[in-house]
Hints:
By secondary structure, the protein is an alpha/beta fold. It folds into 3 domains: about 5-75 and about 95-125, no CATH class; about 130-480, Glycogen Phosphorylase B (Rossmann fold, 3-Layer(aba) Sandwich); about 550-790, Glycogen Phosphorylase B (Rossmann fold). Helix 8 packs across helix 35 (about 810-825). It is globular. The two termini are about 40 Å apart. 1-beta-D-glucopyranosyl-4-phenyl-1H-1,2,3-triazole binds near residues 380, 675, 677 and 696. The site of 1-beta-D-glucopyranosyl-4-phenyl-1H-1,2,3-triazole (KOT) has 20 residues, from helix 8. Keywords: Allosteric enzyme, Carbohydrate metabolism, Glycosyltransferase, Pyridoxal phosphate, Transferase.
Amino acid sequence: TFTGLGPAEIKNVEASIPEPLREAWREHKYFVRHVETTLARSLYNCDELAAYSGTALAFRDRLIIEWNKTQQRQTFTDQKRVYYLSLEFLMGRTLDNAMLNVGLKDVARDGLSDLGFRIEDVINQEHDAALGNGGLGRLAACFLDSMATLNYPAWGYGLRYRYGIFKQEIVNGYQVEIPDYWLDNNPWEFPRHEITVDIQFYGNVKKYQDENGRISNSWEDGEIVQAIAYDVPIPGYGTKTTNNLRLWSSKASSGEFDFQKFNAGDYESAVADQQRAETISAVLYPNDNLERGKELRLKQQYFWCAASLFDIVRRFKKTKRAWAEFPDQVAIQLNDTHPTLAIVELQRILIDKEGLEWDEAWNIVTKTFGYTNHTVLPEALEKWSVPLMQNLLPRHLQIIYEVNLFFLQSVEKRFPNDRDILSRVSIIEESHPKMVRMAYLAIIGSHKVNGVAELHSDLLKSTLFKDFVKIYGPDRFTNVTNGITPRRWLHQANPRLSALIAEKLGGYDFLKDLTLLDKVEAFVDDKAFREEWAVIKRENKLRLARHIKATTGFDVNPNALFDVQVKRIHEYKRQQLNIFGVIHRYLSIKAMSAEEKKKVVPRVSIFGGKAAPGYWMAKTIIHLINNVADVVNKDPEVGDLLKVIFIADYNVSKAEIICPASDISEHISTAGTEGSGTSNMKFVLNGGLIIGTCDGANIEITREIGEQNIFLFGNLAEDVEDLRHRHFYGDFKLDPQLERVFDAIKDNVFGDKADFSALTSSIEEHGDYYLVSDDFNSYITTHEMVDEAFQNQEEWLAKSITSVARMGFFSMDRVTNEYADSIWNVEPLDVTD
Ligand code: KOT
């Protein structure tokens, strides 16, 4: 029976807890008090949900104390703070993380067990906080964890969506979306009803002469929506720092407007106004790597930016410093272009409200902001229609035009002979309707722009933002390769592996300095260590097998090679390549003699991921995966040699079960399309090998762990454009092995072929934009190498151990320190009292 707590952890984390406090916890004092008073339940009437609430509240009390102290200390020392603006924070569950940070998990486990509960079941009661789509939102959550752990004075700002990313069910092979109402009994948020900001929309701009005779602009009329702050404590690991995540919720303002309607007896329309206001923070847009230009989305963006900026400026003004000092006190990081209006809003506050001159204000603005680009996919690049913005944010549009004018004037001066450059770099695209290019605005309004992996940052400089490199020079553009927090993605998700490593390294220091993992390599030939490593992987596979049995009813063989692809479903991520590969394997097995079958390495192909509700092709891919699973899993000729599983509703807490259980995982995007990818890092850190293309962070993972420890295949980014060009001019021949797969689909082997014709024809007839056919042969061959390698378990194990030992670079702590040094210019606030 494994507890997840090694002796080393008890030494490190628990040592700081005074004995009387431990004693009080042992006697269930805090738990019982919360169950009996806060929840008004008796211990005899305490179910698992109440046990969860009681435990969460007891741990929350501990967090709050450090949280308050941290905030006081940050206000008192008044040094530069970082504000991380993100429309998405994919936090997952909090209780386990809180236990890890507070350090009383062992006592809680015993206490709950005294009362007849298993701590795992209690932890499982919690709803995931799923305020994000995928990698971008999860990166924001990892940032918060690292910033607190490294003692940076940092706040996150986001939206408090009533509905997070939808829950996914699979019905007859199709994705069905269920609303995710997650807010009931959420003990981790604190409403701050006293912290409100009035946010204006629509209206018009009037010019007037101020008392100094200066012509100024004033934004008048329109409607007001109120922003209310909800705060979430963000504890660091092994530190007292507990930072703040502030999420804004929208509400109708109780201004005159409403009263007039009430007085006129127009109750219904007053309620409708109320609902319209609340709609702003009602739901997370469920699109990953796609922007669709909906007015409500723009409203969300402005609402959140304006509330956050008001809050930040209010905090700064309390210090009574001169405006020129603003960038010495405030660094704002834009998580993609979604918060770009914050740039315009700060300029508006400084010139319209605070009376600064344009140049002085703009100088402050550009020193304050940094912009992170996460994707080069054209469909994800934000553009807003000028008429839409004119109507919703008339003053902001004026400011954008002015920023553009000054910018273009400076470009013209520098490049007088380049006629085309002005239209290429203009913030305004001269289309019908005209569009505001948010990425260009973000570049022009920031002092640093970064990509999220080396290849991605290089591509930004050589393609999308090429002209801006010419204009500003290369120094404005930089790379910070993504990372993941080892607290959640190693220690929490894989406590036993973490404990084994801690045992060898003499403690858990590696959770704060992941480069210490390199010491693990010394044990790669240690027999007992290797055996334990293998046992842990097996246990983790069994845990996933139990989850699969419970959720799908299928039995999977834990000795089989677990092959996993879990991420958002997108054509560029190429789950279609994977499922075509599975069909190829299936057809090959069916054609084998009994003798040949004996040589086959049994496989379980595991898929998981959500499709954007309006993304038809992605939904078709999910449908095909489920139909293939249906046929393969009940084919007696195949038996245990191949199973196909689609895990519904992939989310953070499922990732915590899936990542430690993979033998191999797939990161197979068309070269040049994936910004970074971060699940690749999670899988390798948990001792899984990966098959991947030369894309995103796969390239740097290869550099770190060595190319003998990774299975790379496929065309390179530099060849993609040429291949697409050739396809376009008819130079395309379907790979013969893929043709056999398509023939089976067209023979209705996996259900009605008509259901999948869009998928096959996108490859055969419409140019194969994602190069599925071009990479198919290389993909299949590489999977054969995977099978062969898996048969040599001793070597496989060596690859697994070596890779983990070399993953130190991908800690989010390294990432956070790089941002702090090269973009934010902030120092940690020392908290050793
Ligand atoms: C774009 C528009 C809307 C919603 C999400 C996006 C988005 C997500 N753009 N890039 N991402 C992913 O960000 C991750 C974190 O940097 C990367 O690892 C991943 O490659 C991006 O696809």
